[in-house]
Design a protein that fits this description.
Layout: E1 2-3, H1 10-18, E2 27-32, H2 38-48, E3 52-57, H3 62-71, E4 77-79, E5 86-87, H4 91-102, E6 106-113, E7 118-121, E8 128-129, H5 130-136, E9 146-149, H6 150-155, H7 168-176, E10 181-192, H8 199-202, H9 205-225, H10 231-258, H11 263-273, H12 284-296, H13 299-311
Parallel strand pairs: 1-2, 2-3, 6-10
Antiparallel strand pairs: 4-9, 5-10, 6-7, 6-9, 8-10
């Protein structure tokens, strides 16, 4: 459990582990230099329950915190829980029963979007190779619903990429897919909370940049290490997702310039992101023109384009 600025939520996350119907667990909490009361709250639980350990580190990001936590785990399997989310009481029992029945490398369950009180990811609950589940069945495995055999992480030196601000969880899971198969517990057992302070909500240009870098890292990793009849299909799907994300980002920037005239925000976003490149095969000339205009960071040009666009509606 990595911890950073989650004081309002961490007690509920820890309580959801303590209240598990399966009691043979170890909880490793890693304080990533959190400046609020979250570390103090975590320590208060560790004093009362010897199954809870709190580790303190200077702020180095969630990936380093997770790697640090993994290195202090002693169990045969490792589960993950963000300190602003929580488990249903039967999460560990249901997952352990599945482990005993299948002796699996890894497993996952569905989860519930607390904001909408709806199952965000559930059926078809694909099983088999993780990469094939993702690319062929379009199944998304969320880290907080994922459990993996610790020895396999050690054997293949699988870790979270340090300094990755976003998408480090999916990069990790998909790299696991190069080596591991997975099974499913076909019910939602974890709650996802929309924390307005989380990185997924606060990052813009940096978020997209790190998302794309994570996807490219997975592509390279699959290309170098994965052998399967489905390899090219998986690589094609990963490439499609990468290009779709950067194209959507381009469209957001274009809208911010042409329709919303948020020039200062776009300039700041481009400082965080860097140079925008074209990955869209359709309408290539049009997209190249849009990208050149966006990359110019020229407010006068942007204003002319915006006026021209509005006058030609």
């Amino acid at each position: 459990m990595p911890v950073y600025k989650t004081a309002p939520f961490i007690a509920e996350a820890i309580e959801s582990v303590i209240q598990q119907t399966f009691s043979h667990w170890q909880l490793v909490i890693v304080n990533d230099g959190s400046p609020d009361l979250a570390p103090t709250i975590a320590e208060s639980y560790a004093v009362k329950d010897e199954r809870i350990t709190v580790i303190h580190q200077t702020n180095q990001g969630v990936s380093v915190a997770r790697n640090n936590g993994i290195s202090h785990c002693h169990g045969e399997y490792i589960a993950f829980l963000d300190s602003d989310d929580y488990y249903l009481p039967n999460f560990l029992q249901a997952m352990t029963d599945k482990i005993k029945a299948t002796n699996c490398d890894s497993l996952y369950c569905g989860y519930i979007d607390e904001k909408n009180n709806s199952v965000a990811f559930g059926p078809p609950y694909a099983e088999g190779n993780i990469l094939e589940c993702y690319a062929l069945h379009k199944q998304h495995i969320w880290l907080n619903s994922f459990i993996v055999k610790r020895s396999l992480l050690q054997d293949h030196h699988l870790q979270f990429t340090p300094n990755r601000l976003i998408c480090q969880d999916q990069e990790f899971i998909l790299k696991c897919g190069v080596y591991l198969t997975t099974v499913a517990v076909t019910e939602p057992l974890v709650f996802y909370r929309h924390n307005e302070n989380s990185a997924t909500n606060t990052l813009k240009g940096k978020k997209v940049k790190h998302d794309l870098e994570a996807r490219q890292a997975v592509q390279v990793f699959v290309q170098q290490h994965y052998q399967s009849p489905y390899k090219q299909q998986i690589l094609d799907y990963l490439e499609l997702m990468h290009n779709t994300n950067i194209y959507n980002y381009q469209r957001q920037l274009w809208k911010a310039i042409v329709k919303d005239t948020k020039y200062d925000e776009v300039i700041q976003d481009l400082k965080d992101f860097g140079i925008l490149h074209n990955y869209e095969k359709k309408h290539k000339i049009k997209n190249l023109i849009h990208i050149a205009i966006i990359n110019s960071k020229n407010k006068t040009l942007w204003n002319l384009v915006s006026l021209f666009s509005k006058n030609n509606k």
